[in-house]
Amino acid sequence: MTSPAKPPLRVFLVDDHQLFRAGARHEITSQGAGVEIVGEAGDVASAVEQICRVVPDVVLLDVHMPDGGGPEVIRRVNSTCPGIRFLALSVSDAAEDVIGCIRAGARGYVTKTISTPELLDALRVVAAGDAVFSPRLAGFVLDAFAATPEPVTLHLDPELDQLTTREREVLRLIARGYAYKEVARELYISVKTVETHVSAVLRKLQLTNRHQLTRWAMERRLVPPGS
Amino acid sequence: MASGPSTAPASPPGPELQPVPAAPPARAVPGAPPARPSAAPSPSAPAWPAPAASGSQPAPYGTWRKPAARNWRSFLSRETWGHVRRPSQGRLLAGVGQALADKLGVSPLAARVALVALSFFGGFGIAIYVGGWLFLPPEGSEEPIARTALADRRTVGLVAAAASILGALMVVAGILGAPALLGAVSPGLVSVAGLVAVWRHAGREDKLAAERLISLLSAAGPNAAIVGSSGGPVNGPSTGRRLVVPLLRLLAGAGLIVLGTSTLLAPKHLNDTDITVALAAVGVVAGVSLVLAPWWLRLGRELAAERRQRTRAEERAEMAAHLHDSVLQTLALIQRSAHDPQQVQRLARAQERQLRSWLFEREPTQQAGLAGTEEPPTLDAGLLAVQQEVEADHGLRVEVVTVGDCALDERLRALLAATREAVVNSAKWSGADVVSVYAEVEPDAVSLFVRDRGRGFDPAAVAADRRGISESIHGRVERHGGTSSIRSAPGKGTEVTLKMPRRPAP
To answer: What is the strand order of the sheet B483-488 is part of?
Structure first.
């Protein structure tokens, strides 16, 4: 497809289900030109050890595993050999799991029902250093950063704890099912700009100490009718 | 070959048994204390005050009293008892009887009989025994239990607590005029306080022995089983507390029972009034409940454990039933329709959605909504019901994302119905395999977007009489004060936008 000079995308698989690893490996290698599976692991300890050894471009990571799961792998890899990019993959799209993975340092989150072309796209986006926001993740972020008044006593960093109007617009469109390209067309901006906005949101999501984020993950927000 | 090894082990027990019968006679012969190898009478002789040595053999108690009366201080002194050890061999309980026998030059049996006999006179034998236990170090050690016990604050506290309880009982006994109790209680006080100390600081051997003594003592009452079972075998440091507390409780309870019954039976010293009888009854009841409390507690714990286990079994049965009804049935269907990939996909997707909602959703509200028996209570639950229904009927994926949630009212029910219509339209006409639904709840309005990337159409070219869009979507929403719009073009997919104002808060 692309120029032959471009080196293949090196992907590492982490999932405690052997069957799923085999399936993912098969689909990625058969459909993804220019993607190479450089290794796989079925538990946290061997994943950390191997990832630091082979240094892949992207780690495709299952959220639910024994001994701490995906977030634990991310934290341990980041402490020993930082700079590896993670894309979280799970059957669950429960808010705690999604947010937990992103907060640990994953650059995106997709569910296992994702189609193979979409997954390949997501891998490339993460490898390029951008963020992958599924509609559901966008919805979670909008929910978590909802414009509800926070207590004034809380030291909010406006840089980190609030979304800009533009970021909100981008997230809304993603939640509505728009691809980055479609978002760009809709808002008359470039795809690169969309990716910049999304990466900024990811950073806020990872760094904010907004109290709302954790509280919200436990109880869904019921919006009272306006006055 | 096989018979060889089997007969070989049979023969050794024969010769081995021989020495065993030979040993007991030496131990059982009452009249020959000097013959005992471990008796060591010679070291005891120099320490003993001179006149005692000659007359010790025929009348042990006589020799015991005389020097004691004359030289009480030296009798209790370190020089007298400092080298006496409780032997580790041949002891019945803690070896106090043997140690005393060795010291006094009598047979251990005689010492034991004397101790038991003394126990029947107000429990003094037990008190002496416990005293010996505390102050005589075990064989091979220099430290008596008493010294380590005194160094421990908690032991001192516990001993004080035991003593104070018994002291209180004595006072009550004195007030109620049951002097017989006084005699029984005072040596008991010493024994219990001493046993508490032994308990916390004795070695493993002594702990076992103390346990035996306590169950022996309590066997007299109705409580042997309780103490025996709640005490259990000594297997860790926690046992100390497990046995000290029952012991204190047992004594307090038994004391209350005795007080109550004696007051009931002998009320002569008091006025024979109803109050006395009531007091006595209360005492008996309190005593009985104190003694039986651990048994009740254990019964309650066992019942709770059983209930927990039953709940767990029920949960497992429910899960098995659910998996059978859903996953296994679907897998069977999938096997049967393996030739039809579309059908397989549809089944797998519907099943996955259902299983996921069962596993991850907190409330099974969407199931109620699906069954149609109850209105789904919130917007989110309603959208999930729509999602399940359309996925099951039309075999495409419906992705639902909601931001915020709120209770459904009449307007929002209309909005939900319009949304369902839009999703069904996409499923029927677009040819896309995914429909995205996005709902955002704001304080004053709810926005809903239904989008597909299918073949699309020209909205202007749709005949005005097409009921699907004009009536089911536009009409429904607008009648309740909302707005709706459709954006679509051939080949560009379709997006339906709905907005419904929320009823202001009352």
So the answer is: B397-403, B434-441, B445-452, B494-501, B483-488
Comparing C-alpha atoms, which of A60, A179, A53 is closest to residue A127?
A60
DSSP for residue B447: E
B453 vs A contacts (CB less than 8 Å): 177
Q: Tokens at residue B30, please?
A: 């009452």
Q: Is B362 helix (H, G, I), strand (E, B) or coil?
A: coil
Angstrom distance (rounded) from CA A179 to CA A185: 10
Ranges of chain A with pLDDT below 70:
1-6, 32, 147-161, 209-227
Q: Is A113 on the interface with B (CB under 8 A)?
A: yes
Distance CA A124, CA A60 (A): 12
* Beta-carbon contacts of residue B454 (< 8 Å; ≥ 6 apart): B426, B429, B430, B431, B432, B493, B494
pLDDT in tens, B53-99: 444 444 444 444 444 444 555 555 556 666 777 777 777 777 787 78
Give the DSSP H or E segment for A130: none
Find the residue in A nearest to B407 (Cα): A222
- Which residue shows structure tokens 């038991």? B116
Determine the Cα–Cα distance for residues B432 and B397; give it in Å rounded to an integer.
9
Count CB atoms within 10 A of the CB of residue B107: 23
- The verdict on a CB contact (< 8 Å) between A177 and B436 is yes
Query: Measured between CB atoms, which of A93, A143, A226 is closest to B504?
Result: A226
Cα distance between the two ends of chain B: 97
Q: Do A226 and B444 touch (CB under 8 A)?
A: yes
Query: Taking a contact as any Cβ pair under 8 Å apart, which residues of chain A between 149 and 178 contact chain B?
Result: 172, 175-178
* Interface predicted TM-score (ipTM) over 0.85: no
Q: Which two tokens stand for residue B150?
A: 């005194």
The whole-angstrom distance between residue B192's C-alpha and the CA centroid of its chain comes to 28
Rg of chain A, C-alpha, whole Å: 18
pLDDT of residue B232: 38
Q: Residue B331 corresponds to which amino acid?
A: L
Would you call B495 and A136 a contact, using CB atoms and an 8 Å cutoff? Answer: no
